[in-house]
Amino acid sequence: MNAFLFTALLAATPIDLEQARARSRENTQALVALLEAASAEQDVRVARASLLPQVRFSAGALAEYNGPQRFFTVVPVGDGTFQRQVIDVPAAANANFSLGLSLTQLIYDRAIWARLDQSGALYEVQKGQAIEQRDASELEGVQRFFTLYRTQATIQVLEANVRRSEEQLERSRALFQAGRVGKAEELAAQVNLGNDRIAVATRGSQLAANQVALATWLALPGAELVSAVDPGVLRETPAPAPPLAAALDEARTHRPLLVALRQQLRASEAQERIAHAGYLPRLSFQAQYGRNGPNADVVYLEPALQNSVTGILSLSWDLFNGFSTQAATRRAQLQSKAAELNLRQAERDLEGAVRQSHATVEAQILATELAATNRKAAADALALATERFNAGVSSTLEVRDAQLKLTQSELTLLENRIDVELARFALMRAMGTLYPGEAQ
Predict the structure, then answer these.
(1) How far apart are alpha carbons 281 and 62 in whole angstroms?
(2) How far, in whole angstroms, is CA 212 from its chain's centroid?
(3) Are strands 13-15 and 226-228 parallel, antiparallel or unpaired?
(4) Nearest to 312, CA basis, from 279, 278, 284
(5) What pLDDT shows up at residue 299?
(6) Rounded to whole angstroms, how far apart are CA atoms 40 and 439?
(7) How large is the C-alpha radius of gyration of the chain?
(8) Angstrom distance (rounded) from CA 201 to CA 82
(9) Strand partners of residue 285
(10) All structural domains of the chain with their residue ranges
(11) pLDDT of 190-246, one tens digit each?
């Protein structure tokens, strides 16, 4: 093996498929989506707070100074008439102290209840989008894992071809020394070996790029060397795709995107109720207890004095507000209709995506079976060409042609077998069953 490639794989941190899936579910994009969902959950608490009693305590001290004042006033005189007099008021300082406690309780406001329902729906939307992002991140991690594994396996196939070329060069050299073939056969085999070694060496940059792509996606340092552990797919017969009808049922039930869009429709319907609440009255109750006085000791230390209690039952009703409630209600209805249209279109798109992914899995399984047959035929052809060359009845060119066909058939089998797994994970993503550890 090329020294660079050997170092890149030997010193690399091994990552298996399950590790790649687990770390991808917790990468930056997925964590940001979870934080947004957590923020939406706090909006539910804020909306609920309006329905709970609002209690406020207050205390204050006021100091006021008024300088000398002069006023003009009218006063009565003895004969029953009035006259204007000037009154001078000396400077004075006043103080006022207060202590209060108020309680406000909403009794009826349909808009508040609708906002609570809406905030709950929006939280479910964010939660569904977070799950959707988690699945998208996991699928991307799976694709990057298999891309790296494909490059590693390709290098192994090309190295096997190098070893076959080395064996062919040794046979050509031995036959030339025995006088059974010409020098040209040995030189042709030597050139072929050099080209095969170049093919392996040029894969180094691709290997490094694939390692970086996987490492950064898994939140590992970009300079860290990683290697994809053989998932064993090449040694297994591909399992058949699930029935299409069952796949569609799973998608309709579990796909997070549909769950989020259904909750978005619920939030839009709640907005209709919020807007319609403008036609209805609002009822609330407020109780206030207060203490006020010019001296702090009277207000704060004499509980029997300066007390006042007030209770207010408030009913408010907007009888006419310039048709703004009517406009808001109509706008909310239109938004609900748009949300419903988006949901129906998403359902159609999802069915199409599931059908396409399902067809891709079946097509790749068939292609893998054909590639396996081709690989066996190419191996038999190389064995036959090698026997003919050893017998002196063929040339290096014939062996080289059979060798390249075998290498190509092995690479085709590798590509198709990995594509089966990628298509299967894409189908699971479309169905919403990529991560079975949590009910959608």
Answers:
(1) 38
(2) 21
(3) parallel
(4) 284
(5) 86
(6) 20
(7) 41
(8) 117
(9) 105, 313
(10) 3-59+110-280+321-431
(11) 999 999 999 998 988 899 999 999 999 998 888 888 999 999 877 888 889 999 999
Residue 345 CB burial class (10 angstroms; 0-12, 13-18, ≥19): exposed
Contact 259, 347 (CB under 8 A): no
Helix or strand or coil: residue 49?
Answer: helix
Query: What backbone phi and psi angles, to 5 degrees, belong to 219?
Result: 65, 35
Assign 391 a pLDDT band (cuts: 50, 70, 90).
confident
Task: Name the residue with tokens 């062919």.
Answer: 168
Task: Specify the amino acid at residue 159.
Answer: E
How far is Cα of residue 131 from the mean position of the Cα atoms in its chain? Answer: 6
Cβ atoms of 288 and 95 within 8 Å: the answer is no
Q: What is the mean pLDDT of residues 395-415?
A: 92
Considering the domain 3-59+110-280+321-431, what is its CATH architecture?
Up-down Bundle (1.20)
- pLDDT at residue 365 is higher than 90: yes
Three-state DSSP class for residue 103: strand
For the record, the structure tokens of 29 come out as: 């994009």
